[in-house]
Amino acid sequence: MHAATIVGLLADPTRLKVVSALALGAGTIEEVAAAAGLPLKDVALAARRLARAGLVRRDGHTLELLTERFRAAARAAAESAPAPEPLSDDPTESAVLAAFIRDGRLTTVPAQRGKRRVVLEHVVRVFDVGVRYPEREVNALLAVWHPDTAALRRYLVDEGLLSREAGLYWRTGGWVDVDGR
């Protein structure tokens, strides 16, 4: 079974409640109905659909959630997912960035200065060279990366990647793409 099929089945609120009740220990149609706050008829219809799809084993009024189907679908989806695009052409930098950036967000600020510098040089690219930014704009750009904008701002200034004067910030360091590629 494909993960997309499972997601489609669980997109229905009634089936989702039935699966939730089963996952929490309900074992009969009556127990599921009580736990989910659903009419017996709705539970029976949802259980029938889930059984036909292979997610639930049904024996009379007894129901069993086949959790291994969920694990197998998750494993298959993970194995067939394309590898993420590298965040840098340098394999060492790419490994550091992959360790700290997920879905375009910084998960944590690295404690090690060398790794932190790699991450900060990546983050500073959101600032255009030659543009002065008020602190409010700097915070908005950094909030896309991480909720602690004050720490990121401070690190960028401390590392010489941003400069600050009279409430304005501008980029003063890091790699710059000069040919637009």
TrEMBL record:
Highest taxon above the source species: Bacteria
Domain DUF2087: 105-171
Family matches, as InterPro entries: DUF2087, WH-like_DNA-bd_sf, WH_DNA-bd_sf
Name this protein carries in UniProt: DUF2087 domain-containing protein
Organism: Geodermatophilus obscurus
Lineage: Bacteria, Bacillati, Actinomycetota, Actinomycetes, Geodermatophilales
